Please model this.
Amino acid sequence: MKSLKERSGEIEKNSGASLIDLGDGVICCEFHSKMNAIGGDLLAMIHKALARLHADFNAMVIANQGENFSAGANLMLVLMTAQEQEWDDLHVMVRQFQNTTLAIKHSPKPVVVAPQGLALGGGCEVVLHGTRVQAAAEAYIGLVETGVGLIPAGGGTKEMMIRANERAEGEEDLDLFHALKPVFENIAMAKVSTSGEEARARLLAPSRPRAMNLDRLVADAKQTALGLVRGEWRQTAPAPGEPSIRVLGEEFIAAAKLAVYMMLRGEYISEYDALVARKLGHVLGGGALTSSQLVSEQYLLDLEREAFVSLCGERKTQERIAHTLKTESPSGISICIEGSL
Model:
């Protein structure tokens, strides 16, 4: 993004990200931490960008010109906090990330996210909350937290549940139970899209724009943002506390447990993989509810956070995180990129 900085100028910078004026009333939040890992400085800069957006700009782009959009959350910080058994601090950390993704989603002005390369875990969750996603053709996006013995807790599970609801409502002969099955499988198996096109179909939405030329990714995202402004886009998402997401409760949780049991019996997964998958099934079911009902975004975020923190307390999760930090390769359920990078 050097040419953009030279042409428009950097507004503010910290160790995690910079704010850049792209011109024409569009502000950009550019990540530049190591591996673009999501930590406190980066989250703080997103909030500053949103504040400037609301006060002085018409639209916002979240992008960078690194090799990868974001490798996810700062696992070293998560591991250290868990090893010190600072559970309240861990809850606060997760809640801060959740509040940031909610702020992106519920911004009264459009926010376009432009991922390229890897957008994994927390990076994927930032992408999922954008008003629009301008994904590069070579974008490999996925919720991969099960690979380190965790589940998505920055709103990723919640957003995939919302997409399952939308599919069930929009497709004839598809009920919510069957719309949720591939969501459970994709997250449990830590699947990653093989391209921006696959991500659009499986994670984002077929109507989302894409960029074929990586050199024009930010410029195309800016034009998408300006198009939303010209179209007088208005925020229509229900408030975070409004019950608007249908969950199935025990009906889905029981089915998920059965699927996990069969995978375990077939020796496709380990006992610990099964534990993580059952936690995921509990969240996707909407908790221990006896019948289908509507719940709020905040309700699901609380379920995500409780499951995430409880898994951080497990020795095997800490071992998996440590292994990943040491080798840059997750143990346990493999991160499945169905193709070659």
